[in-house]
Amino acid sequence: MKQIEISTEYIALGQFLKLSDCIDTGGAAKFFLEENEVLINGEPDNRRGRKLYVGDKIDIKGFGSFTVVKR
Questions:
Q1: Is the pTM of this model over 0.85?
Q2: Which residues pair with 39 in a beta bridge?
């Protein structure tokens, strides 16, 4: 499981996708979420504005598993 570090209280799913190298630009988030299954703490979610907090676990089919940690 890869750890993605944040220094703020939360990070939006769209920003998370860029930090985790799943997408190259923030503009690609909408299309990525339409085409890929994303599970947040075991539940499907495709809202790019979804807030992710420290401790959240994200599974992206074909890209791996991630967890959000405090920097």
A1: yes
A2: 44, 59
Q: Are 58 and 40 in contact (CB under 8 A)?
A: yes
In angstroms, rounded to a whole number, what is the distance separating the alpha carbons of residues 31 and 2?
Answer: 23
Question: What Å distances lie between residue 62 and 10, 14, 48, 53, CA to CA?
Answer: 24, 17, 18, 23
Instruction: Report the alpha-carbon distance of residue 35 to residue 22 in Å, rounded.
Output: 12
User: What distance in Å separates the CA atoms of residue 48 and residue 51, rounded to the nearest whole number?
Assistant: 9
Below-50 pLDDT ranges, the chain: none
CATH topology of domain 2-70: 3.10.290
Radius of gyration of the chain (CA): 11
| Closest to 51 (Cα-Cα) out of 14, 7, 2 | 14
Entry field: residues in the chain: 71
